[in-house]
Amino acid sequence: MTDNITPKQFRESEGVEDWRVLGDGANAYFQTGSFAGGARLVQAISTLPGVDELQPEVDLRNDGVTVRMLTIAEDYAGMRQPHLELARKISAAARKLGLSADPSKVQSLLVIPGATDRAKVMPFWRAALGYEPRRDSPAEDLVDPRSRGTPFWFEQMKEPRNDGGGAIHIAVWVPFEQAEARIAAALAAGGRLVRDTFAPSWWTLADPAGNEVDIATTKGRD
Q: CA-CA distance, 17 to 28, in Å (whole number)?
Protein backbone atom coordinates (compact mmCIF):
# COMPACT_ATOMS: atom_id res chain seq x y z
CA MET A 1 0.00 0.00 0.00
CA THR A 2 1.08 3.59 -0.60
CA ASP A 3 0.51 6.69 1.50
CA ASN A 4 0.64 9.03 -1.51
CA ILE A 5 -2.33 11.40 -1.78
CA THR A 6 -3.55 13.70 -4.52
CA PRO A 7 -3.93 17.48 -4.22
CA LYS A 8 -7.72 16.96 -4.16
CA GLN A 9 -7.46 14.48 -1.28
CA PHE A 10 -5.29 16.93 0.65
CA ARG A 11 -7.65 19.86 0.00
CA GLU A 12 -10.70 17.90 1.10
CA SER A 13 -9.16 16.62 4.35
CA GLU A 14 -10.20 18.08 7.68
CA GLY A 15 -7.99 20.47 9.62
CA VAL A 16 -5.93 21.85 6.71
CA GLU A 17 -7.90 25.03 6.04
CA ASP A 18 -4.73 27.10 6.49
CA TRP A 19 -3.02 25.25 3.62
CA ARG A 20 -3.12 25.42 -0.17
CA VAL A 21 -1.57 22.89 -2.56
CA LEU A 22 0.47 24.59 -5.30
CA GLY A 23 3.04 23.33 -7.77
CA ASP A 24 5.57 22.86 -4.98
CA GLY A 25 3.30 21.02 -2.56
CA ALA A 26 1.28 22.15 0.45
CA ASN A 27 1.89 25.78 1.39
CA ALA A 28 0.84 27.92 4.33
CA TYR A 29 1.68 31.49 5.32
CA PHE A 30 1.41 32.59 8.96
CA GLN A 31 1.38 36.28 9.84
CA THR A 32 3.77 36.95 12.71
CA GLY A 33 4.26 40.73 12.68
CA SER A 34 7.92 40.49 13.63
CA PHE A 35 11.07 38.47 13.05
CA ALA A 36 11.06 37.38 16.70
CA GLY A 37 7.46 36.18 16.44
CA GLY A 38 8.33 34.18 13.36
CA ALA A 39 11.37 32.70 15.06
CA ARG A 40 9.14 31.42 17.86
CA LEU A 41 6.95 29.65 15.34
CA VAL A 42 9.97 28.13 13.59
CA GLN A 43 11.21 26.88 16.96
CA ALA A 44 7.83 25.31 17.67
CA ILE A 45 7.78 23.63 14.26
CA SER A 46 11.25 22.21 14.83
CA THR A 47 10.03 20.18 17.82
CA LEU A 48 7.02 18.58 16.12
CA PRO A 49 6.97 14.82 15.48
CA GLY A 50 7.58 14.03 11.83
CA VAL A 51 9.68 17.09 11.03
CA ASP A 52 12.93 15.18 10.61
CA GLU A 53 11.31 12.69 8.23
CA LEU A 54 9.22 15.09 6.13
CA GLN A 55 11.68 18.01 6.20
CA PRO A 56 9.30 20.92 5.56
CA GLU A 57 10.83 24.00 3.95
CA VAL A 58 10.45 27.01 6.23
CA ASP A 59 10.98 30.60 5.10
CA LEU A 60 11.28 33.16 7.91
CA ARG A 61 10.75 36.86 7.16
CA ASN A 62 10.06 39.96 9.22
CA ASP A 63 6.31 39.82 8.65
CA GLY A 64 5.62 36.10 8.53
CA VAL A 65 6.60 32.48 8.01
CA THR A 66 5.92 30.40 4.90
CA VAL A 67 5.97 26.61 5.17
CA ARG A 68 6.10 24.27 2.17
CA MET A 69 5.84 20.47 2.20
CA LEU A 70 6.50 18.10 -0.70
CA THR A 71 8.04 14.67 -1.14
CA ILE A 72 10.31 14.13 -4.15
CA ALA A 73 11.59 10.60 -4.76
CA GLU A 74 12.89 8.74 -7.80
CA ASP A 75 9.38 7.62 -8.74
CA TYR A 76 7.10 10.22 -7.13
CA ALA A 77 6.67 13.92 -6.47
CA GLY A 78 3.70 14.98 -4.40
CA MET A 79 1.92 14.82 -1.09
CA ARG A 80 1.86 11.94 1.38
CA GLN A 81 -0.53 11.05 4.17
CA PRO A 82 1.94 12.13 6.90
CA HIS A 83 1.92 15.66 5.43
CA LEU A 84 -1.70 15.99 6.53
CA GLU A 85 -0.92 15.33 10.18
CA LEU A 86 2.12 17.58 10.17
CA ALA A 87 0.12 20.37 8.52
CA ARG A 88 -2.48 20.11 11.30
CA LYS A 89 0.23 20.20 13.98
CA ILE A 90 1.92 23.24 12.42
CA SER A 91 -1.40 25.08 12.31
CA ALA A 92 -2.06 24.15 15.94
CA ALA A 93 1.40 25.43 16.95
CA ALA A 94 0.69 28.72 15.19
CA ARG A 95 -2.67 29.11 16.94
CA LYS A 96 -1.06 28.39 20.30
CA LEU A 97 1.25 31.36 19.63
CA GLY A 98 -1.71 33.54 18.68
CA LEU A 99 -0.81 33.56 14.98
CA SER A 100 -3.21 33.29 12.06
CA ALA A 101 -2.77 32.03 8.52
CA ASP A 102 -3.44 34.01 5.35
CA PRO A 103 -3.86 31.57 2.42
CA SER A 104 -4.10 34.46 -0.06
CA LYS A 105 -0.39 35.18 0.49
CA VAL A 106 0.97 31.88 -0.83
CA GLN A 107 2.23 31.40 -4.38
CA SER A 108 5.11 29.75 -6.18
CA LEU A 109 6.95 30.35 -9.45
CA LEU A 110 8.20 28.08 -12.22
CA VAL A 111 10.43 29.12 -15.13
CA ILE A 112 9.64 27.27 -18.36
CA PRO A 113 12.22 27.32 -21.16
CA GLY A 114 10.98 25.73 -24.36
CA ALA A 115 13.12 23.75 -26.81
CA THR A 116 12.70 21.22 -29.60
CA ASP A 117 15.56 19.28 -28.00
CA ARG A 118 15.45 19.47 -24.21
CA ALA A 119 18.50 17.26 -23.75
CA LYS A 120 20.57 19.69 -25.78
CA VAL A 121 19.73 22.83 -23.79
CA MET A 122 19.47 21.47 -20.24
CA PRO A 123 23.24 21.08 -19.67
CA PHE A 124 23.71 24.80 -20.38
CA TRP A 125 21.11 25.81 -17.80
CA ARG A 126 22.39 23.29 -15.27
CA ALA A 127 25.88 24.80 -15.54
CA ALA A 128 24.71 28.42 -15.54
CA LEU A 129 22.39 28.02 -12.56
CA GLY A 130 24.32 25.49 -10.49
CA TYR A 131 21.13 23.40 -10.38
CA GLU A 132 20.68 19.63 -10.49
CA PRO A 133 18.12 17.32 -12.12
CA ARG A 134 14.99 16.69 -10.08
CA ARG A 135 14.97 13.13 -8.80
CA ASP A 136 11.62 12.05 -10.25
CA SER A 137 11.96 13.83 -13.62
CA PRO A 138 15.67 14.31 -14.44
CA ALA A 139 15.02 14.65 -18.18
CA GLU A 140 12.60 17.56 -17.68
CA ASP A 141 13.33 19.48 -14.49
CA LEU A 142 16.25 21.30 -12.87
CA VAL A 143 16.09 22.43 -9.24
CA ASP A 144 18.21 24.32 -6.77
CA PRO A 145 19.93 21.68 -4.59
CA ARG A 146 19.39 23.97 -1.59
CA SER A 147 15.72 24.61 -2.45
CA ARG A 148 16.18 28.38 -2.55
CA GLY A 149 15.86 29.21 -6.24
CA THR A 150 12.91 28.98 -8.62
CA PRO A 151 12.73 25.58 -10.36
CA PHE A 152 13.01 25.20 -14.15
CA TRP A 153 10.82 22.86 -16.20
CA PHE A 154 11.86 22.36 -19.82
CA GLU A 155 8.92 22.20 -22.20
CA GLN A 156 9.20 20.04 -25.29
CA MET A 157 8.35 22.23 -28.32
CA LYS A 158 7.00 20.55 -31.46
CA GLU A 159 8.69 23.11 -33.68
CA PRO A 160 10.98 26.11 -33.17
CA ARG A 161 9.75 29.69 -33.14
CA ASN A 162 9.51 31.36 -36.52
CA ASP A 163 12.42 33.66 -35.71
CA GLY A 164 14.59 30.75 -34.56
CA GLY A 165 14.82 32.09 -31.01
CA GLY A 166 14.26 30.35 -27.73
CA ALA A 167 11.00 30.49 -25.83
CA ILE A 168 10.83 31.12 -22.08
CA HIS A 169 7.76 31.92 -20.03
CA ILE A 170 6.90 31.60 -16.35
CA ALA A 171 4.12 29.99 -14.37
CA VAL A 172 2.70 31.60 -11.24
CA TRP A 173 1.02 29.04 -9.00
CA VAL A 174 -1.77 30.53 -6.85
CA PRO A 175 -4.59 29.12 -4.73
CA PHE A 176 -7.57 28.35 -6.98
CA GLU A 177 -9.75 30.95 -5.28
CA GLN A 178 -7.16 33.62 -6.09
CA ALA A 179 -6.83 32.81 -9.81
CA GLU A 180 -9.77 34.84 -11.12
CA ALA A 181 -8.66 38.00 -9.32
CA ARG A 182 -5.06 37.54 -10.43
CA ILE A 183 -6.12 37.13 -14.07
CA ALA A 184 -8.42 40.15 -13.91
CA ALA A 185 -5.66 42.30 -12.44
CA ALA A 186 -3.19 41.24 -15.14
CA LEU A 187 -5.70 41.97 -17.91
CA ALA A 188 -6.51 45.36 -16.40
CA ALA A 189 -2.78 46.13 -16.32
CA GLY A 190 -2.49 45.79 -20.08
CA GLY A 191 -2.31 42.03 -20.55
CA ARG A 192 -4.31 39.83 -22.89
CA LEU A 193 -5.65 36.30 -22.67
CA VAL A 194 -3.73 33.98 -24.98
CA ARG A 195 -5.62 30.78 -24.18
CA ASP A 196 -7.84 29.25 -21.52
CA THR A 197 -8.03 25.79 -23.09
CA PHE A 198 -6.51 24.18 -20.01
CA ALA A 199 -8.44 26.12 -17.36
CA PRO A 200 -8.80 25.71 -14.42
CA SER A 201 -5.35 24.10 -14.39
CA TRP A 202 -3.86 27.17 -16.06
CA TRP A 203 -4.64 30.26 -18.11
CA THR A 204 -1.98 31.74 -20.41
CA LEU A 205 -1.70 35.53 -20.51
CA ALA A 206 0.70 37.84 -22.34
CA ASP A 207 1.98 41.35 -21.75
CA PRO A 208 1.89 44.01 -24.51
CA ALA A 209 5.29 42.78 -25.78
CA GLY A 210 4.11 39.17 -26.10
CA ASN A 211 5.90 37.73 -23.03
CA GLU A 212 3.73 34.99 -21.54
CA VAL A 213 2.77 33.83 -18.05
CA ASP A 214 0.60 30.94 -16.93
CA ILE A 215 -1.66 31.59 -13.97
CA ALA A 216 -1.69 28.03 -12.63
CA THR A 217 -3.61 26.09 -9.99
CA THR A 218 -3.76 22.44 -8.96
CA LYS A 219 -7.49 22.34 -9.73
CA GLY A 220 -8.34 19.70 -12.31
CA ARG A 221 -4.92 17.99 -12.19
CA ASP A 222 -5.95 14.93 -10.16
A: 9
